[in-house]
Amino acid sequence: MGLAGLLAVGLTTGLGIAGLGAAPAAAQAAAPLPPASLPPVEQLLAERVMGDPKAPVTILDYSSMTCPHCAVFHTEVLPKIKEAYIDTGKVKLVFRDFPFDKAALGASMLAHCAPTERFFPLTDVLFKSQAQWARAADPNKALAQYGKLAGMTQDTIDACFANTALADGILNSRMIGQNQHKIEATPTFILNDGAERVEGAQSFEVFAKAIDKLLK
After folding, report:
1. Cα–Cα–Cα angle for 208, 212, 216, rounded to 5 degrees
2. Does residue 2 lie in a domain region?
3. CA–CA separation, 74 vs 78, rounded Å?
4. N or C of the chain: less Cβ packing under 10 Å?
5. In-domain check, residue 23
């Protein structure tokens, strides 16, 4: 599937983007953002949360955008968790960047520079197409194509990749994860501040068992 098709699927899978019309497949990219306009870094680094903020179970998702096991979770397992627990108000998922390499850092930065409501659809597309952009000779150049299809201009993308405060903030978040939750590998999931912990490429059933313990 081409980039436009992938993003069209990612932006219309029910992850909560309003106002996106059903344009022809080749033109289903989001409306362009104002050129080179980025919010303050504090806003760019704000937590990205999927689900009801008041949900009784919180999953901290520590993932690297270039991690194959993270891609499996996001493309195969998360949709099941979303249907069973997130959409029903029982769970909220908080994405925590844990980049292991420069390409992963670039992908995290790009996702944070997209409008907040496009964060999860864009990360979904990036995980689905991970093998393409992560192995490119110039990952940031490859990532820029996804940014454009998500409605970002080249000027905005360039400003995003040049934002050292954003990069430092993402790397600092990784350090906090290492110190607070002893994260050593991705994906790692911390449920309700450590009441349950899931590590690695696990099935939906493993997550369901851990979540159900916390819902009793």
Report:
1. 175
2. no
3. 5
4. C
5. no
Estimate to the nearest angstrom the gap between the alpha carbon of 120 and the chain centroid.
5
Report the number of distinct structural domains present in the chain.
Answer: 1
- Relative orientation angle of helices 139-149 and 154-161, to the nearest 10 degrees: 130
Burial 167-198 (b: 16+ CB within 10 A, else e): bebbeebbeebeeebebeebbbbbbeeeebeb
63: domain CATH number is 3.40.30.10
φ and ψ of 12, to 5 deg: -130, 25
- Residue 24 resides in a domain: no
Cβ-proximal residues to 86 (8 Å cutoff; 6+ apart), any chain: 50, 51, 55, 92, 93
- Strands (E) in 19-56, as ranges, are 48-50
- Token look-up 């690297």 returns 64
Cβ atoms < 10 Å from Cβ of 122? 28
pLDDT tens digits, residue range 43-69?
999 999 999 999 999 999 999 999 999
Name the residue range of residue 148's domain. Answer: 34-215
Six-digit token string for 192 = 């309700």
148 assigned to some structural domain: yes
Tell me: the pLDDT tens digits for 135-176?
Answer: 999 999 999 999 998 889 999 999 999 999 999 999 999 999
